[in-house]
Design brief:
It contains five helices and five strands; from the N terminus they run H-E-E-E-E-H-H-E-H-H. With 189 residues, it is α+β, with helices and mostly antiparallel strands. Helix 2 runs antiparallel to helix 3.
Length: 189
Amino acid sequence: NLPSMRTPTAMIVGLVLCPCGLLLTLTGTLAPNWRQVSHIPDQSIDLILEQGIWDMCQEQQSTHNRLCGQTDELGYFEQVPVWVAQRLMPTSLVLNLLGLVVAALGVRCWQKEPRHQLAGVAGLVLFLSGLLSLTPASWYTHELWALPAPAGSTLVVGYSLVLSYLGSCLEILGGLALTLSFHRCCKEL
């Protein structure tokens, strides 16, 4: 009985979803828009303050003038959910890259048979990477309205937070798909 030359579908799904998750999580981590603060009292009505985990930007919607590097007068960056996100998001990105390297070694791109056990380990690493980025995104969302903001202003979820959520979910799903490779290992034992 000759071995199948096809790459298992679960491995292909994992190798498609996880790099997409990496790009979304990277964008969500770097872009300064986890939260938008608008209708700030004593400010122009079209002024929006965009708060990320690394930077704050101020934009006039009428002119599209954007100024980043705003001073943190309210202690936003000192808040625990922001501090945790500053540590877990980069850790997740590094783990995702490591998982993708291991996955590339486990999936048979240049060999006759995939290394199922190695692909399964990569799936676990990528699953963990997704959890590490989902945790701060979820916690930040839970605390969104409790984080410091000018009194009387309007708070809205920013696109960076949404991208972080989507990226985390893709990493988790891709990691789970690659983890299915263990099924083949168990059958061989």
